[in-house]
User: Fold this.
Amino acid sequence: MDNVEDAGGETTESEDAEEFDVDEALSEVGFDADQSVLTRRQAEVLVLRERGVRQSRIASMLGTSRANVSSVESSARRNVEKARETVAFAEALTAPVQVSVDVGTDLYDVPKKVYDACDESGVKVNRTAPELMKIVSDAAGDAIQGREVRESLLVGVTTGGRVQVRRSAE
Assistant:
């Protein structure tokens, strides 16, 4: 078994990774290699890593090197991020409310633009103005500095009221 340090600094033994049933774990989460952007090996590495198994232990289990496990994990995480971005793009395309936020816009003006567009489309957004500003600011990252929008943004609202923020290509 692996020795693991717990929150109090105590060393305890974790579940023996050799006894961990990767196939069962993949089945439990509904992994289907034919439908996934991940290879089976990438999924195996991710499921083990998410269960706290060290890369060196995974390498031993899979009969490969720790460097290879690191590379597989890195590729898997990039693929997951690409899949998330693809889903966000597809949802943005179909969002009934899409508000363009131009460079130079004051962040404090964004909620009114979103509320007005939602009213026109009959879409309900259950967010206060400060919540909307935080969502936009957090999602936009360095595209907003202070209260100023520095890169064009697209704020979408789904029929369910979920707010999505994307940087526009303009």
Observations:
- The chain has six helices and seven strands.
- The first strand starts at residue 3 and ends at 5.
